Amino acid sequence: MPVTPSAPNPGEKFPVAEFPRIGFLKNIVRSSLIHVGDFSYYDDPEGPEHFEEKCVLYHYDFIGDRLVIGRYCALATGVQFVMNGANHALGVFSTFPFSIFPGSWRDAFDQSAYARGCRAGRQGDAKHCCNHRRESSCAGTRPIESVDEAGCESPCPFGAVAA
Known about the structure:
Layout: E1 22-24, E2 34-36, E3 41-43, H1 51-55, E4 56-57, E5 67-69, E6 74-75, E7 81-82, H2 104-107, H3 112-115
Parallel strand pairs: 2-5, 3-6, 4-7
Antiparallel strand pairs: 1-3
């Protein structure tokens, strides 16, 4: 009697019993900021359950950026995703990431600046950065005089225009 092949179960962590180094990431990843499609797998001789710690770098919850991996993606050992937490402010007095440390350094930082794409926010300075997406970090924290509908100073130093 012929055997009818069946597809792997997308709900399994380790779809190939003989190779526990292969795992469907959707069933392994714990972070709500990482979304993985069905059947996408990671192959690592030390185990796919270490994917987040080894492969997703600088992914801080307070930044809120998401990693989205589609369906049917094959991720090899050593793959790395460098997230926005690796960006350092370039237009301020120091590139040191004061805002990632607890206490008064973090308290003085405007966390909503990350949502606007700026890495150099200050509390109480709502008009310090344009809301552009062309650069990964803000050009500076100087107060600006006029802000258009897109949240950019006029003229925007990065060429962003209001929609």
